[in-house]
């Protein structure tokens, strides 16, 4: 019988490290590709929407008051009132919306005779998260205007602070959702500028003509 020639390949530490590194890299790529980033959509939307809404709403209110009054106290009080009212509105709106979604899902589970425990949306958690996100966004223009006495400088600082915060919010949302960063930042920045400009212009027009 003819003897079989076995070819032996020596196993070295370098070969082992190379194989392990390659396997680890493939595992990482597979994990990144398999992860469904749309799962982040619901909480990401609520967080970004709440923070952006608080930032733009309160800043626009302050710009509107700043268009007709130079008193820093009036601007701060208006912004603070907008912070409280907006946070309450966001919390109530999110609570009602998520509770309605929960009722729909429960009704569907009953129709499908599928009554085991599943992950259902939490309306209380959604309401608290939306209110906190709104307040975090709203407090930025208040802090920017609180320590500046000159009226024109104060308005400029508010606009600059809001613009920077909008870019940061857009960047965070794009990174977490794995979307285009430039488009996200540009879109949110233009929207914020339009809101502040329209509020400032219309309030100034009404204050100088109609009243």
Automatic annotation (TrEMBL):
Its biological purpose: Vacuolar Fe(2+) uptake transporter.
Gene Ontology BP term (one): intracellular manganese ion homeostasis
GO terms under cellular component: vacuolar membrane
Keyword Ribonucleoprotein: no
Catalytic reactions of this protein: Fe(2+)(in) = Fe(2+)(out)
The protein, known as: Vacuolar iron transporter
Compartments (UniProt record): Vacuole membrane
Keywords of this entry: Ion transport, Iron, Iron transport, Membrane, Transmembrane, Transmembrane helix, Transport, Vacuole
Family: Belongs to the CCC1 family.
A single GO molecular function term of this UniProt record: iron ion sequestering activity
């Amino acid at each position: 019988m003819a003897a079989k020639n076995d070819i032996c390949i020596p196993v070295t530490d370098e070969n082992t490290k190379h194989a392990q590194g390659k396997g680890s890299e493939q595992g990482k790529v597979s994990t990144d590709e398999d992860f469904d980033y749309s799962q982040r959509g619901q909480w990401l939307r609520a967080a970004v929407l709440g923070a952006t809404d608080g930032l733009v709403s309160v800043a626009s209110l302050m710009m509107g008051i700043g268009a007709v009054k130079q008193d820093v106290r009036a601007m701060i009080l208006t912004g603070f009132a907008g912070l409280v009212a907006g946070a309450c509105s966001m919390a109530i709106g999110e609570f009602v919306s998520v509770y309605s979604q929960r009722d729909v899902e429960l009704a569907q589970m009953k129709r499908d005779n599928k009554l085991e425990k599943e992950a259902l949306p939490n309306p209380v958690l959604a309401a608290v998260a939306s209110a906190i996100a709104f307040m975090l966004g709203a407090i930025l223009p208040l802090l920017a205007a609180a320590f500046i006495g000159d009226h024109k400088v104060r308005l400029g600082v508010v606009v600059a602070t809001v613009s920077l915060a909008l870019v940061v919010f857009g960047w965070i949302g794009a990174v977490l959702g794995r979307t285009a960063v430039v488009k996200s930042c540009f879109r949110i920045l233009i929207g914020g500028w339009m809101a502040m400009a329209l509020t400032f212009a219309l309030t100034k027009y009404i204050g100088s003509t109609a009243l």
